[in-house]
Amino acid sequence: MMTAGTGGVGLAHRGGELTDSCYDMSIQATERFEIALNTRAGRLTTAVDVPTAFVPVTAIVPLMRRLGEEAQALEETQASAEGKTRSCQKGCAACCRMMVPIAPPEAFALTEFIRLLPTEQQQRIAQRFAASKSTLLAQGLWHRLVEIGESSRPPDDEALEPINQKYYALRMPCPFLEDDACSIYEQRPAACRELLVTSPAEQCEDLLANSVEPIPVPIRIGPVLGLLWGELTESPARMIPLPTVLDWLERHQHESHRTWQGSRLLDTALDKVWRFLSQGIKESENQGKRQAAGGSTLPTKS
């Protein structure tokens, strides 16, 4: 039994096999591990296949996203038991006008995915990113967002709140939004997967004026991946505002070629997961306080 963190997270080795790797689509030798997580909403156990070879950090991204979704499914089940139903549906794109932060591993994975898209779709995405940059420059937000992605200090929610609200006031759609639907839905960032609400969908049309009831997020996978990258590279735990990600990648793409042993990536990531699980109750309490204070604070995509 390998342990990541202390208490609440277990990692058991279940032997090796050959399986399809999602990061380069070739046959890779893997080790199977069974992960056990004690979350606020219950115990989660799941099996994962981890490459035995040295792989880029993008190889761990799909696994961590799945882990986050399975943990949040427990929260959704608990909400359902309390008579609450998720109101988020396809075509409800209100949250696609919020500022979305992504970690460097997600940024690298995103650019790998974009390169596989048809040329015409790549061009449409590039045009929407350029339009977003023009709008943000005109509003005096672009350079502030770039600074966030390059900051040597971890993002502070309180300091980011005025920027979040100014960004949201623009009601600027995500560059990946097409006809009010996500054009990269299967590859969407972790932050987009985590913002689910049980309040009426129409309340999401104005998140500054209306309060919403989000389903608790036991593990924020974006920050987990940010912390993972920071430890692997001995650099700050960065989160990159999505509209600036192509600009950020121009300066950092070379970093994506570094590799680590798959089991090390998993063990280090699970250590960060435990950090978030241990903070779950405290975050839930803080969220309740914010909701009680009124509807002026945006739900957080973090």
Describe the protein's architecture and organization:
This protein has one domain. It has a 3-stranded antiparallel sheet. Strands 4-9 form a two-stranded antiparallel sheet. The longest helix is centred in the last third of the chain and has 31 residues, at 262-292. The radius of gyration is 19 Å and the shape is globular. Helix 7 (221-233) packs across helix 9. A hairpin with a 2-residue loop joins strand 2 and strand 3. It has 302 residues and is α+β, with helices and mostly antiparallel strands. The protein is built from 9 helices and 9 strands.
Tally of contiguous helical segments:
9
Give the low-pLDDT segments.
1-7, 16-22, 294-298
Mean pLDDT: 84
Number of strands: 9
Short description:
The chain is an alpha+beta fold. It has 9 helices and 9 strands.
From the structure above, extract its key features:
two-stranded antiparallel sheet, single chain, 44% helix, 9 strands, 302 residues, 3-stranded antiparallel beta sheet
SSE blueprint and pairings:
Elements: E1 9-20, E2 27-39, E3 42-51, E4 54-55, H1 61-81, E5 101-102, H2 104-115, H3 119-138, H4 142-150, H5 157-169, E6 177-178, E7 181-182, H6 190-194, H7 221-233, E8 240-241, H8 245-252, E9 260-261, H9 262-292
Antiparallel strand pairs: 1-2, 2-3, 4-9, 5-8, 6-7
